[in-house]
Amino acid sequence: MPTTRREILKTAGKTATVLTATAPWWLVRRAHAARQAKLVVWNPAALAPQVDKIMQEQCYAYAKQAGIKESEIDYQIIGGPQLLPKLVAALEAGNPPDITRLGGGYVQLYRSQGHLLEVTDLVNRMQKLQGGLFPVSMPSVMHQNKAWGVPQSISPWPLVTRLDLLEAAKVDPPKTWEEFVEVCKKLQKPPKLTGFGLCLGLQNDTDNNVMNMIWCYGGKLVEADNKTVALHSKGTIAAVQLIADMFNKHKIIPKGAIAWDNTGNNKAYQSRQVIFVLNPTSIYAHLADSDKELYNVTGLLPVPAGPAGAVEALTTAEWLLFKHNPYPEVAKGLAEYWMAPENLRVMIEEGDGRWGPPFKNMYDSKFWKRPVFQHWRVMLERGRQFPAPGTVNPAAGEVLATYTIGRMMHRVLVESWNVEKAVVEAHKKVAEIYARYQGA
Amino acid sequence: MAMRVTTQRRVFQGVGNGALVLMLLWTAIPFYWMIATSLKHDKEIYGYEATLIPQRPTLDNYATVFRETPYLLFLRNSLAVAAGSTLLSMVIAVLGAYAIARLNFPGRALLARSLVFTYLVPTSLLFIPMFAMMSVLRLTDSLHGLIIAYLGFDVPFCTWLLMGYFKSVPVDLEEAARVDGCNRVGALVRIVLPMSLPALVVVTFFSFTHAWNEFLYAHVFTSTTSARTVTTGLVNFMSQDVFFWGPLMASTVMSALPPVLMFLVFQRWVVKGLTLGGVKG
Amino acid sequence: MATYTTVSLPLPSSRRGLGSWGDRVQRVLMHDRILGYLFLFPALLVIVGLVAYPFASAIVMTFQAKTAGAPGRFIGLDNYRELLQSEQFLRAVVNTVSYTAIGVGLKFLLGLSMALVLNQERFCNNLFRSFLLIPWAIPTVMSALNWRWIFDDASGLINNILVRLELIEETISWLSNPHLAMLSVITVVIWQGTPFFTMSFLAGLQAIPKELYEAAEIDGASVLQQFSNITLPRLRPIFITAVMLSAILTSAGIQFVLILTNGGPSDRTMIFPVLAYHLALGGAQRLGMGAAVSLIFFPILIVFIVFLTRRMLREKGE
Questions:
Q1: What one-character DSSP code corresponds to residue A188?
Q2: Contact state of C262 with A202 under an 8 Å Cβ cutoff
Q3: Chain C contact set for B135 (CB, 8 A)
Q4: Could you give the CA distance from residue B126 to residue C54 in angstroms, rounded to a whole number?
Q5: ipTM of this predicted complex?
Q6: Which of B42, B127, C40, C293 has the fewest CB atoms nearer than 10 Å to its CB?
Q7: The model scores a pTM over 0.90
């Protein structure tokens, strides 16, 4: 008995090992082919609920027109922090959604891993509409003359300002960073009201905010060749030193900003705890629905100038269409529908300007000619993306996603490191990341 | 001598009462904050006007939860998954624990020791290969898929804990029963289980609350709203907006009730079990 | 401990006359070995299928440069080498050890105290027991969010009270002050996790027969003597079980740190599971690195477990 049993066990063990080792990839393909929905949409929340609703309605309208039943659509609105874990797991299992929306270089990252659907024809059609797409939208989606994502929006990050407080104190909007510090010191009333809601937590807002100030002082992340890392410079050091002084000496930044998540500065402004924040229009759009009073006194001002001039941060978002999709035309159709200027206009205007359209001529409408958006054109023209003058690519994406700049700030503000030391360390980390991607 | 002990007892009783009060406060205050926040308007929650006691209590947040989210559906799903995984893991664990504790077979010691190692891989990493597996087995987006996934966590712990408790049940009683003609299964059901009632309660409670609280697997494995549980469904809805604390706290208050009610019910069983058990020596 | 193998026992009267099938079943039920495997089979199936297999996948991943959705490229020990040279990783190790040690230690002490207190005779004890269980009943995610709110700079409960009582002028940043962040996170861990210890110890305490205490008292033992001679030895296996499990689960739990501080400020609260999560899902989504972080921790945990299980099994041998 024992001998036979052992032999059986051995064969069973061997078979199991073989099956296990070869199981993953071909089994996973089979699972995906069996799905029932014709359209799977994972739409991250826009932080302005009215916009989520409009986009969903438009999706269902498209489906109806394309002859797809409601039961064949799987539409999910997913909270920001939850999207990535689900996406990574889904990619690993071989059944990602058909379409989702991301910024920050993910198009290039997933393209380099072979997950995305090519959408050159769609983008070419978009170039023929409304004067075509802004040049700044293109590097995030283009690779070797093919388009791998659909530009969805451009968002400059203005200085969101409490105009009523400035007016009451008869103070003009600050034109330089020095003036800015003075205005904050004059107007703030700690602990209830602090001047500058600069995001300093370990998340993307921080990287964009800090890099914005670095540009104003002449620093940058990487050169236009996308290879030479240029972070360590006098400009960067000056900007970081300024932030450190704002935090420690002038005390115009709330101490809690170090732990803020992606809604930290939104919350701070919307509950009237800060005077200025650097943020895209998610705050403004939210106020339209939730706090008309504050909405009416909120200004979207250009960023104060440093020695190297004034420049805003600019982020773009793209629709990503995944390749593992038995109905690619449906997804492409949806992207095209959402981006059709008539629909886009509805989403933007009824969404109270949550995003800026990527089409050049769409800014000529009445909505964008309102006084609050008077600086928009300027910001669009001079705004820079995170790695500028380099372009958005997987390396920059990783720098952003690992909060390299945020960690640099924590070294200075939390660990009390010398500014140059922290900048040098960050520079080294960025260089390491870029070196790893040579050839992607 | 006896006098001294009585005084000692009284002292300890007093200290105990004091400690109890402190612990009750410690537990209650955050819970109070949760309830209070759930009853406040947005204006009272955020900013420096934040109040300690709701000035104008409102049930709006609760209404929002029911209006904006299919909360009852989430509740039903959570209950189903928790009950299902608890039941299944209990059966599997009881059998397994009894085998290791009482039956003699080769590999027993090794198994006893290696059970614990199943916990070394955190779910925060296991979820990726698990999800791939669930997809292949078509278990995603389903409640029974979640139940099965939770077994991986519950069974080792329950088995291990019960193993410890079963071993502490005196063998004499079982031996007596078997002399009387009872077989192993009978001994298990009639002798060991009733005597381990406190342990069974702990283990049931553990499985239930684990399934109830679980977030990561539920979030990754289920996408469709109809399969979402209380934890994931609500957090997903809530993190879509900037000001979600009011409704989130309202849902948290409601979500904490089932496990607590469950324990209230089990409480009596534990006491009853002990008096029926007739444990001696 | 007495063991039984095949022993011929007279069949119980109810079974007589059932025929060969009944006999065979009866023989199986009497034969320890077969019964053992039979009973164990479902548990083993679960463990192999739901734990061992994903575990094996994860191990393989640590030797690969792997991103989601693509087969990994074998790179040997490179992931491990990179980690052992990374300051962030080494800091995470130190943080994890201290976080776990302090968290479990305090949970243990508080849990034991509460179990002893609840074991005393008292009016409405049942209600108190259920009430103290509430933290454990609340989903971890929601509890963490609630505490995040309690610690909030501007609107949080603690700062609110302190400011009103005029004890402080500037609000305290519980979660972004490098000296306070870890303590704040541990506070939440304790709030949530103590009921587990309380419950386990209470169950153990209630299983100790009252007669033992009565006998000891008659012999003149003081309360403290009774505690150390009767209570403690009886509870030891439960102590070991609870501490071991709690240590493993606490050190591997990500939700508290993720929601409260996300590892900050400046990696002061970075513990290894959070690091693994960040590596696997952030940036280039290097799944291999993420898996490697968890696996490096194994030796430490294994040593700890072996040490404890040996003590426990030795106890059982008496």
A1: -
A2: yes
A3: none
A4: 6
A5: 0.74
A6: B42
A7: no
